[in-house]
Amino acid sequence: MNDDNRLGPVLVSLFQGVLYRESAETLWQSLLDLQARVRDYCSVIGLELILDDAEGYAYLRQRAPMPDAPDMPRLVQRRPLSFPVSLILVLLRKKLAEFDATSGDTRLVIGRDDIADQMRLFLPDTANEARLLDRMDTHLNKVVELGFLRRLRAQDGQFEVRRVLKAFVDAQWLDDFAQRLDSYATHAGSLDAREAE
Fold first, then answer.
1. Where are the domains of the chain?
2. What pLDDT, on a 0 to 100 scale, did the predictor assign at position 192?
3. What band does 37 get if pLDDT is binned at 50, 70 and 90?
4. What string of DSSP letters covers 126-190?
5. What's the mean pLDDT when you consider all of the chain?
6. Multiple choice CATH, 3-62, 1.10.10, 3.30.450, 1.10.3210, 3.40.1440
7. Residue 29 — pLDDT band, cuts 50, 70, 90?
């Protein structure tokens, strides 16, 4: 197959989302072979290729605006995340960092109940356990849809944390979230104080 025939499937796969080496070895090899052409093609439409060969993932990101260039419309839309989804991402990122520091394995598998237990520390107390778990499933479904978790088919309630999470939830993102968490705590504290009056 010539390079032109291999370039199209690679680009389409990247436009659809994250490309993982483990799930598409042929496309991954084509991406490595055609990396310069992919970068050139994407730069024309304001995108940049993020490729981490060690972790085995690649994706497209909107390129930062250039000072001298005219503004380019956004091709990749930003999606605001709810507080619980953001919190899950932070907790998963922390768990992944701990896992990488203590384990030689590359796959972090975590259970729904483990995630729910960690979330309970940050969410208001509720007497309705079933409702909490239903909401947890909704939030976990969103994290799966975003591509940061993958359900394990043979194991009910078990998820693999996708390593691409490290690229999206970086130090800046964590710092921004910590500031939002502080303002949320301040706001919640002022509401509690008003209710106590």
1. 3-62, 83-196
2. 43
3. very high
4. -S-HHHHHHHHHHHHHHHHHHTSEEE-TTSTTEEEEPTTHHHHS-HHHHHHHHHHHHHHHHHHHH
5. 81
6. 1.10.10
7. very high
